[in-house]
Design a protein that fits this description.
Length: 136
């Protein structure tokens, strides 16, 4: 892929994931403070190449990321990917369901922590409490 195309694809994907109603401080910003060149390379790979693949849609990728981060109990990264999931159209109830599924494999303390992050994100976005359409 031409670098110019990859850069544009990276920007478009990042805007879809992280350009929602809440300003997010994504890891790229921290990486850039330490090594701008490496930060660029990582961003082009992760957001430009991996997240732009079409085998899974962005909403599906975000649900996978949410489930993995919930299982690993990585709250700060989970917060970013919950926002990303909501930004690309995943319903809050589907995010919660992915988190509940994690309990079978990672335990319910992981579920409890992740649901707490989900609720915080929904509060930040003005989307809590869930509407009637989200409760079922």
């Amino acid at each position: 892929m031409l670098e110019k195309t990859l850069v544009e694809q990276t920007k478009q994907t990042a805007a879809k994931l992280f350009g929602g109603p809440v300003r997010l401080k994504v890891p790229y910003e921290l990486w850039k403070e330490f090594d701008p060149g490496l930060a660029r390379d990582l961003s082009l790979f992760i957001t430009g190449n991996l997240y732009s693949r079409t085998v899974l849609s962005l909403p599906e990728r975000q649900l996978v990321a949410v489930a993995a981060l919930a299982a690993l109990q990585k709250a700060e990264e989970l917060r970013i990917h919950i926002h990303g999931a909501l930004n690309v159209g995943v319903k809050p109830r589907h995010v919660a369901e992915a988190i509940f599924q994690v309990g079978v494999y990672a335990g319910f303390p992981a579920v409890n922590a992740a649901l707490g992050v989900l609720k915080e994100v929904l509060l930040e976005r003005g989307e809590w409490p869930l509407g009637a359409e989200e409760e079922t």
